[in-house]
Write a structure and sequence with these properties.
Layout: E1 8-9, E2 13-16, H1 24-30, E3 33-34, E4 38-40, E5 55-57, E6 61-65, E7 78-82, E8 91-95, E9 98-99, E10 106-115, E11 120-128, E12 134-143, E13 150-160, E14 164-173, H2 185-191, E15 195-203, E16 206-213, E17 219-229, E18 235-240, E19 244-253, E20 258-270, H3 275-312, E21 314-317, H4 320-337, H5 362-374, H6 376-388, H7 390-399, H8 429-445, H9 448-469, E22 471-472, E23 478-479, H10 497-516, H11 518-523, H12 528-539, E24 545-546, E25 551-552, E26 562-563, H13 582-586, E27 588-589, H14 596-602, H15 609-619, H16 630-640, H17 644-656, H18 672-686, E28 690-692, E29 695-698, E30 708-715, E31 718-724, E32 728-733, E33 739-743, E34 746-750, E35 756-759
Parallel strand pairs: 26-27, 29-33
Antiparallel strand pairs: 1-2, 2-10, 3-4, 4-5, 6-7, 8-9, 8-14, 10-11, 11-12, 12-13, 13-20, 14-19, 15-16, 16-17, 17-20, 18-19, 21-30, 22-23, 24-25, 28-29, 30-31, 31-32, 32-35, 33-34
Helix pairs in contact: 4-18, 5-6, 5-8, 5-18, 6-8, 6-9, 8-9, 8-10, 9-10, 10-12, 10-14, 14-16, 16-17, 16-18, 17-18
The structure holds beta-D-glucopyranose.
Beta-D-glucopyranose binds next to loops.
Protein name: Glycosyl hydrolase
Active site: 488 (proton donor)
Pfam families: Glyco_hydro_65C (PF03633), Glyco_hydro_65m (PF03632), Glyco_hydro_65N (PF03636)
Amino acid sequence: MITDRSYAVEPWAVRETALDLDVLAQSESVFALSNGHIGWRGNLDEGEPHGLPGSYLNGVHELHPLPYAEAGYGYPESGQTVINVTNGKILRLLVDDEPFDLRYGRLVSHERILDLRRGVLERTCEWTSPAGSTVRVRSTRLVSLTQRAVAAVAYEVEAVGRRTRVVIQSELVANEQLPEPNGDPRAAVALQSPLEAEEHFASGHRLRLVHRTRRSGLRVAVAADHVVDGPGRTTTRSESSADVARLTVTSVLEPGQRLRVEKLVAHGWSGTRSLPAMSDQVDAALAAAAHDGWQGLLDEQGDCLDDFWTRADVEVDGDEEIQQAVRFALFHVLQAGARAERRAIPAKGLTGSGYDGHAFWDTEMFVLPVLTYTAPEAVAEALRWRHSTLPAAQERATQLGLGGAAFPWRTIEGSEGSAYWPAGTAAFHVNADIADAVVRYVAATGDGHFERDTGVELLVETARLWRSLGHHDQHGAFHIDGVTGPDEYSAVADDNTYTNLMARANLLAAAGAVERHPGQAARLGVDAEESAAWRDAAEAMHLPYNRELGVHEQHAGFTRYQPWDFAGTRPDQYPLLLHFPYFDLYRKQVVKQADLVLAMYTCGAFFDEEHVARNFAYYEPLTVRDSSLSACCQAVIAAQAGHLRLAYAYAAEAALMDLQDLEHNTRDGLHIASLAGTWMALVAGFGGMRRHDDGLRFAPRLPERFSRLAFSLQLLGRRLRVEIHADKAAYTLLDGPPLTLHHHGEPVTVSTDGPVIRTVPPPKPRPTPDQPLHRAPNGG
Ligand code: BGC
């Protein structure tokens, strides 16, 4: 296992016991708190030192032009970039006459704990100033999962050893200075001072700033209220200017005395509401938070997480590191999606500005599967967000000469944000991924209202896209040519198997949905002829296959390409996209990330066990995992093919991606898809869970390292618990009427009468396939 460990291994917490300024930005991502609406990076309370200051509000972005050296028809003109909004978490501290700044003086002790059960970030430290004054600082921070607009900090300073004068400046700061950006200078310009002041206010313990973004025209309001508790002569003063509102609290502390500030912060933004309305909105949110007070918010947060863990916890015996990692992963996946409420769930959640804050297919294929079985309400909301962007997707399809809707490859507000066609709009599979998420959610919840009001239209509009994008050849076979599948080292290729299989499912799901909802079908103008055409296309979908090799092709002709020269590729030349031209990657057999292998997971009914094993053995030596989305998919299929050790190594890589900063870019934000993929590797990999038309199937098998794996799933209003040991598995229905599922192909009916226990058959022995040179998994 990986030895360079930044955080102690504990079941329910991520603990840092030393402050390493060199990895501050990484820890800010790891310790980020979010509820899907507000995101606060784990910046130190005092604001500095910092790696990357970050406060985000889901959906708040700025626009910047996307000029092209060589323009082409249909290129998006405007880029969208998440911006750092008004920072409400700053509490600066002056100790006697020196700023509390950990770059100076002596840090006697330091600890930060991300408490996964209570949903708070706790910090304790003791610091001696250069002039010799010592203070203890404790803070607890939360971003409320129950009050969407609210975040809060309790900050406490204690004098140690001698009488000390302390000043706390609790601030709201807009247009914070950010470290020099790297990357696109046009985006950088949009990010410098992105907020124009509209209103500032300070009175008593209350502060408020309202700003507006320049181009996107979004109004951002942040307000704070405080409860101050200090010894007798504690004084307060508040003031505000365009970009700063400040409450200054001054006190003289005898040794052992404490000054405590509880800061409640309310956030809001809107593209339409007026200045007074936004001021009122944040004041009202603040009033609600103050009504409950700090302790009330803390209690609610704990209750909310208790409920989540009852539904979602994954228990791993025999491997403490993976146990911690999967809870860390689930916590961040929940944070990313919990209260996003009709906004996107970005690839980095709200933990950093990586990928410009854009959402990709990561949402529907990685994040939503986890939430479907653990927090399904959040899935309905995420898909309602997609639905709300239908007008932009329809417009894009029209612009491209296609029918239905073409959802963007990357976006914040719904329009295409990718300036590069081959790894952008050409990745049309995102449309089938959205459809898949709709079908999965409805099958798991039975939410008929959602299907009628939101699902049908998403299915119909995406089916229309496929029908217009593909064509029947002279023999009747249906082809979808010129698209990019999940593997971005193959682009604009014909008949990508993943895309074709997912499109096939999309077309059939749409045909089924319009039969169940004739009223919606009529409203959307779907007639019998159109839905028959969808079925025809689905039934005739071409799946490229190499008979000689007995493997499915990732896309037509792929297995004929020249193999990539792995022997001649140095370890420092990965990721390949930074060292080799795309044109060369595109015409060789080299796979960035699971593509055909992912198809075998998401469309498993199409592949018998022998093909799963053969295909996996074929693609494994070609797959370089230059995307963090790959390891978890490879874990799932490695487990199915019986390569349990390899599956474990991939699961560990997905799980430790951010805790160990395996890709060296955790500073930009967490890899939310890989975190979600941890659950996928355990539940779909070692639990062997698959979704079939007749319900859930399990084919559990544990890797040597695990002595037990247990997880719960929310299913059709019931709670199912699956507990797996090396030789047997137990299925228990915790509530609700009986349910039939499959264990290694055998139907089993579970009821609340007690667990159903079945033996776990050993896997068929097969030689473990190799990976490309230098690309063996990181987590083994
Ligand atoms: C991957 C995509 C993914 C994106 C955002 C890229 O490197 O190839 O599949 O959607 O990152 O995570």
